[in-house]
Amino acid sequence: MPRPSPPSDTRKPGAASPHPRNRHQGQYDFARLIAQAPELAKYMRTGVHGQPTLDFANPAAVRALNRALLQAHYGINDWDIPDGYLCPPVPGRADYLHALADLLASSHDGQRPEGPGLLGLDVGTGANLIYPLIGQAEYGWRFIGSDIDPVALDNARQLIQANPRLASEISLRLQPDPRAIFDGLIQPGERIDFTLCNPPFHASAEEARDASRRKWRNLRGSAAEILNFGGRHNELYCADGEAGFLARMAEQSVACREQVFWFSSLVSKAANLPSLTTQLTHLGACDVRTIAMAQGNKRSRFVAWTFLDKRQRRAWRKARWPAPEAPA
C-alpha cells in the first residue's frame, strides 16, 4: 500500500495549531470517519449547537474514534486495545512524529530522511503501538517497540498480525527490568536513528487520580473527553515520577551514546526541563534541544539530545540516510 502524501509545510512560527503535516486539522470529519468505520455511528450525539459530535464521555467511543482515524488516515486495520490500557489521542501523537521528522531534517541539509533505512525505538510502546503505526505510515521508517508489560506487547503483536505489511517494519522487545530503559534493550552494534517516549507523568496512583480530578473540575463538559484515555499504572506513574524517569533515561543514554543519533522524550511538566537539560549537558551531550508543540490551548514539548559531534553525524548520515537531493 503506497504511503499517502502529507500536507505541505505552511505553519507560521508560534502558531497554536497542529503541525502542518498533521492530518488532523480542525474538527473531525465524522461523515468520512463513519463511512470508513460504520460502528462509530452508534456513538454519535447532537452537540449543544446542533452539530454532530461524539459521545466523548464513553471510553468505547474514544477507542472507536481512534480505530476510525487510524483506518481512514493511515490504512491501519482492526486497531484495538484491552480494557484499561492507554488510548492515546491520535492528533497529538502524530505531532510528535512530524516534529521529530523536522529534527532529523535539520541534521540532513533540511530534507527529511524517509524510508526503511531509518530505525526508531519507541520506549514504552504500550498496547496501542501508536508511534510505530503512524511513523511507518507517514515516513516509511522501521521501528522497535519496547515495553515492560507482556500483555501490552501481546496486543501490539496482534495489531501487527492484523496488518501483515508491518511484519517486516515493526519489531517488539520486552524490557524485563522495569528500572531499565535502554540497558539490555539496544543490542551490541545496533544503530538507532532516533528514540521517542511518552513517559509516565506521575509519581503515584493518588497523584494520577488527583490530576484527573483537577482536569474534570477545570475542563468539565466540552473537554471532558481527555479523561477517558485510560491507562495502566506503568503508563501513568512510576515511583520517581516523570522527573526521575527522565533522569534515568538521560543517565542510561550515555552507555549507548554512539549507537543512537537522536534521543528524545516528551516532557509533560515544563518545570522538569531545566534539570534535564542541565543533566544532559553535564553528561556530555553535544546538542540538546527543546521542541515546542501546540494544539489549541494545549502546549507540549519534547527534549532531544545527541552525543555525536558534527563529524560523527555526517558519517552517520552518509552511511544510513538517503542522500539529500541537490537543489534545482
What is the residue-averaged pLDDT? 86
Along the chain, the helix and strand elements come as HEEHHEHEHEEHHHEHEEH
Strand arrangement in the largest pleated sheet: 5-4-3-6-7-9-8
Unreliable stretches: 5-15, 207-229, 232-238
Helical content band:
25-40%
Q: How many strand segments?
A: 9
Count of helical segments?
10
- Computed Rg: 19 Å
What is the molecular shape?
A: globular
Measured by DSSP, the beta-strand proportion falls in: 15-25%
Which structural class is indicated by helix and strand composition? alpha/beta
| End-to-end distance | 30 Å
Please describe the biggest sheet, giving its number of strands, its sense, and whether it closes into a barrel. Answer: 7 strands, mixed
In a nutshell, what does this entry contain?
The protein starts with 29 loop residues before the first helix and ends in an 8-residue tail after the last helix. The chain has ten helices and nine strands. The protein is an alpha/beta fold.
Fold and architecture overview:
The longest helix has 17 residues, at 90-106. The strands form two sheets. Strands 5-4-3-6-7-9-8 form a seven-stranded mixed sheet, with helices on both faces. The chain has a two-stranded antiparallel sheet with strand order 1-2. The model is unreliable at 5-15, 207-229 and 232-238 (pLDDT under 50). A hairpin with a 2-residue loop joins strand 8 (287-295) and strand 9 (298-306). The chain starts with 29 loop residues before the first helix and ends in an 8-residue tail after the last helix. Helix 1 (30-36) packs across helix 2 (59-74), helix 3 crosses helix 4 and helix 8 (241-253) runs parallel beside helix 9 (273-283). Helix content is 36%, strand content 16%. The protein has ten helices and nine strands. It has helices at residues 30-36, 59-74, 90-106, 130-139, 150-162, 205-219, 233-236, 241-253, 273-283, 310-320, and strands at 44-46, 52-54, 119-123, 142-147, 170-174, 192-197, 260-266, 287-295, 298-306. It is α/β, with parallel strands linked by helices. The chain is globular.
